[in-house]
Amino acid sequence: MVRLLPAWPHWYQKPSYRDPKTFTQTTNAAIEDGHGSRAPSISSQSDAAIPQDLSLDRVLSNKTCSPLSLYDFYMYLKHIELSPENLEFYMWYRDYEARYQQKREGSRPEADTPLLKQPSNEKDNVYATWTGISSGKDSDLERNSQENEFLRYIEGLMPSAELSMWKRCRPFWSRPSESSETTLGNYSNSEELQQVAELFLVPGSPKELNLPSSMRARALAGLQQSDSPQTLAPIADHVYYLLKNCSHRNFIRLGVKNGTFETLCMVTVAGVLLVSVGLLTMLLLAFASPSIHHSNRWRGLAAAPFWWLGFSFLLAGWRGSCFLLLLFSRRQELPWERVDSMEKGGTPKRPNALMRFVKKMMLFERKIRVKDQGLRVLQRTIVVQSMVAALLVTVVLEAVFLCLPIWK
């Protein structure tokens, strides 16, 4: 059941930013040092900044809508963090695991299918002895064709922009059908795993995952013995951990930020001006209208609306959101949406820095309705909290000024 009222008493703060490169290096070092699968300092941190409705599992299941859909998450990884391979591998793994289980239930094999002869016991030779699963007789042209076909299949697991825009919260992505051009119906498990290893796991591969060397070595050695998805389960868990505790947090942080930097600057300046106007109104009423000790103290309440609205702007902007856009559940274009709009509109002459700054302000930018219900609830939470906190600050300021011995 959708919550109608936000749980606003808990002051919301958007997730703190985590540098993907530093976080991955720290996590990999912790694994290599024998601290388990993650850094203890990171594991103990709370996820209260990410509501359950916007959790990574819901995003991966495509149960969230724009601007926090699975397609948006993929575009974020592709254009912002430059690490789409993590999501591509994890989506493939879930798909392969489901297909493997279906085949296993149908054929009931007694044991995992061996892929190669028993590999060498020398740990240092794991990378050197990886020769793939094929016999090596295929030409380079055929290999490139297979790689392209496999890449198309992985891309087919990702929702398109049209689905993200027009379909509301689809329950899950649909695997390519057997009649589709992006199907792996002609691939055996061993051939598919060969493509995965050469694409994601082997050092220097096109989409090499940033993995601890020991985890990579065990996975490559295991692929030479079995085609079971359990061989790659540690890597999938590791990638999921990186997505959940770093990339997804940064993605939610970007989603909560509903305006550009220029818009936030404009709204912050507007908030400061409103607070200043409120203070000026209070001083003029007290000292110049008509003069000190001759003005009714209750006239000082005229400054309250300026303070209330100004502090609402500032408190929302402090958390990276534009108060006016929050009120109407609107947002500005995300970076990749801005690139798409520019490409569709041609390549006009690049304006100067001042014009680019002005055009990115809220008044001149295209406003888009927020479709995801979970994010809209979160935005209402920020609005209510900002207005209530601003009201409390206004009451305190009014009480202080009205109690001063400057009134009639």
From TrEMBL:
Xref: Gene3D superfamilies: Regulator of G-protein Signalling 4, domain 2 (1.10.167.10)
Signal peptide: none
Positions of transmembrane segments: 263-286, 306-328, 382-407
Keyword list, A-Z: Membrane, Transmembrane, Transmembrane helix
Pfam families noted in UniProt: RGS
InterPro entries according to UniProt: RGS, RGS_sf, RGS_subdomain_2
Coiled coil residues, start to end: none
Keyword Transmembrane on entry: yes
Highest taxon in the source lineage: Eukaryota
RGS domain: residues covered: 148-253
PANTHER family: RGS DOMAIN-CONTAINING PROTEIN
Protein name: RGS domain-containing protein
Organism: Exophiala dermatitidis (Black yeast-like fungus)
